[in-house]
Fold this protein.
Amino acid sequence: MRELTDRACLITGAAGGIGRATALAATRAGARLVLTDVAAAGLAETVTTVTDAGGDVLDARVLDVADHEAVTAWAGEIHAEHGRMDVVMNIAGIATWGTVENLEHRHWRSMIEVNLMGPIHVIESFVPPMVRDGRGGHLVNVSSAAGLLALPWHAAYSGAKFGLRGVSEVLRFDLERHHIGVSLVVPGAVRTPLVQSVQIVGVDRDDPRMRRLTTLFEGHAVSPERVADRIIAAIRHNRYLVHTSADIRFAYWLTRKFALPYELAMRVANRQFDRMLPPVPDRTRLG
């Protein structure tokens, strides 16, 4: 998908941060947008910003991606009104950190429900119509450096982000035969409101040591606009793994020195498995 002009693009988490920056970047690329977020005021502001920039917002809906029924119902309305999406971007997410003795069940559950099941709800509602339509497309999942590396205090957060990475890695190969590209975005530090709002269980955020750590994090962070530009470039060039900072790229390289043989093996395995599948129905004969 070299160009996004007139392509229908769904973006979750569009009320701010990476989501809003990506909505604006997609607008500059000529895309028509379908936006959602749980934050009504922020979503309305994004819609105004996009339209003021000359963008086309097909639909903007306040909903929680963790609510399967809400996502499914919305998808039905979108497809009835606007047809299938060309690009689906899972950007919405929340963050809670903490050591295992401090994390409560609700913390683990919220990470999985929003950061893993949320994207799954979007994928199962919006990607199958792309497959059946037969014209290709692209799926973007925003994971995290915590979906690649064992960062301190990130067990619950990483549980979801590693899970989304796994989903993406399988779909990367599964969807290839349908000409649907997959991009896994793994940001390190990003300068968004999440830096200040992230919940760190069992830690006093006003502790001088935590303040110094937060300041160090912010000083090392990249802008949401930089991440958005990387996402748009990944869609255009069908790039799978999307890094936003050199340090994370290098750290992950150390864990994947033998990536090429693995990728080749996965492609061969998927071709073998595909032979057992029935042919995809001819879309021209449907209906």
Notes: The beta strands are 8-12, 32-37, 56-62, 87-90, 96-97, 137-142, 180-186, 199-200, 241-243. Residues 16 and 42 are 6 Å apart (CA to CA).
